Amino acid sequence: MSTAKKTVKAASVIMIITLLSKVFGFLRDMALASQFGTSVSMDAYNMATVIPMILFAAVTASIATTVVPIFTEYLQKEGKQKAFDFINNLLGVVLISTVILTFLGFIFAPYIVKFVAPAFTGEKFELTVKLTTILLPTMVLIAASNIFTGALQAMEHFTVPAMIGIPYNIIVITVAILYGSKFGITIVAYSIIIATFIQALMQLPVLYKLGYKFKLRVNFKDEGVKKVIVLAMPVLIGTGIQVINVYVDRVIASFLPDGSIAALNYANRLNMFALGIFSTAIATVIYPVLSKHSVSENKEGFLKGLNLAVNAILYVLIPVSVGAMVLRVPIIKVLFERGAFDERSTYLTSIALFYFSIGMTAYGLRDVLSRSFYSMKDTKTPMINGAMAVLLNIVLNLILVRYLQLGGLALSTSIAAIFTTFLLFTSLKKKIGRIGGKSMFMSFLRAMFASIIMGITVHFVYNNLIIRMPSDRMIYEAIALFITILIGAVIYSAIVLISDKSALSYFKRVIRFVNSKLVRN
């Protein structure tokens, strides 16, 4: 078998693994929805998962952001051993910091819950406090996992980081189905600790194979740690502002009818599912590539990689977002409506999904653009632009929730994402000059035109199919939905290929690019 064929075969396996990971994540949400629906327990669980993020998100986000460019610099300029020494020292410093924060979280958990969810009282409040104390230690493990992931990605090894979500989700799904009805949502929280530990552990064999050896080092004066701190400070501030935004969302949602927080979470999961399959994968793969071009001062290679990623996201996520808006109700019914997840749950989740979908493409673009700045060791610009967007989001939350309630929170998030993306494009052009904006804009117009035609078509196709299907079984709705999505995909692809003669060769280049960067093991 030729090298090219081996590469394509290996890349196909990796893409399947990535998709499987996202599917299992979706199955996890379906299992939780079936067991707990949009109940008080689910509201408490979703709020409890937010609280560790409030305490640790700034630390973990800064790690994920800064490890890749700094590790890449060590790798290219001083060799692999020096790069691994940096990883060991960073690991020691971060573990000590997160353990201290965890103990503080245990002590002040009731006060934190009261601050984050002031409307929670009685049983709902007590359950949220209990779940919070259970989930706090996971952030120590997530911090370690992020460091390992950053090192692997910097060396362009993406397979294992793509796989770690599969065992995580299998554990949570199994526990939720087998023990959820008996022990309640608490057992799910305990399963997350085990699942997170396995996520971190899975990555070590590959790192050891690449030459890594664990040595506990704690040196706050280490040059690499100093670089992390310098680069991380704007990220810490930016993430802190984002956390405030999440806090405001949850506080406002806690005053809405029961189930609103859970519905918001389910809709966001659906939104992130599409992002995770494609845009997050592209952003992850492009990040070390842009970092290398930045270190070697290869502007042409940098712009080529950036344009490839941006245009690919436009062509894929615009039709997905339009499709999600048009088919939101049948999608939610087929995926979630069973057990405790009833018609009211579907209705609430569909409202949030519609408004989240408006900003889906902007989210994908924001990830790529932010990482283009991070690859140039500029963490300040994304922080400033993100802060402006968060302020806008908070203001819009307070205004739109009066008129759209749950939908207002989701719409505010989408508008803020679009605003952030616009600011990042503007800032990037000021920083490096020409960025190929005309090509990006033409891709946007073609994708939008094809998506609108597709959206109108799938609306009529689904409505005509569903009235011809028996109404007593969910399987028929699933069949109608699948046929509709397939027809929509064919129509969209045909219009894009007709309107852009170079689209086929363009997608081949994207596949070759992903192949060359993913297949490194």
UniProtKB/TrEMBL annotation:
State the species of origin: Thermoanaerobacter kivui
Q: What does this protein do?
A: Involved in peptidoglycan biosynthesis. Transports lipid-linked peptidoglycan precursors from the inner to the outer leaflet of the cytoplasmic membrane.
Q: Which PANTHER family does the record match to this protein? A: LIPID II FLIPPASE MURJ
* Gene that produces this protein: murJ
- Its membrane topology, per UniProt? Multi-pass membrane protein
Tell me which GO cellular component terms the UniProt record holds: plasma membrane
A Pfam family this protein belongs to?
Answer: MurJ
Per the record, the GO terms for biological process are:
cell wall organization; lipid translocation; peptidoglycan biosynthetic process; regulation of cell shape
Q: Show the NCBIfam families listed in the entry.
A: murJ_mviN
Give the protein's recorded name: Probable lipid II flippase MurJ
Q: Name one GO molecular function term.
A: lipid-linked peptidoglycan transporter activity
Residue ranges of the TM segments = 49-71, 91-113, 133-152, 159-181, 187-208, 228-248, 268-290, 302-327, 347-365, 386-404, 410-428, 440-462, 474-499
Which UniProt keywords are given for this protein, alphabetically ordered?
A: Cell membrane, Cell shape, Cell wall biogenesis/degradation, Membrane, Peptidoglycan synthesis, Transmembrane, Transmembrane helix, Transport
* Localization of this protein: Cell membrane
Q: Which family does it belong to?
A: Belongs to the MurJ/MviN family.
Q: Does the keyword Membrane apply?
A: yes
UniProt keyword Membrane present: yes
The pathway that the record names for this protein is: Cell wall biogenesis; peptidoglycan biosynthesis
The organism's lineage is: Bacteria, Bacillati, Bacillota, Clostridia, Thermoanaerobacterales
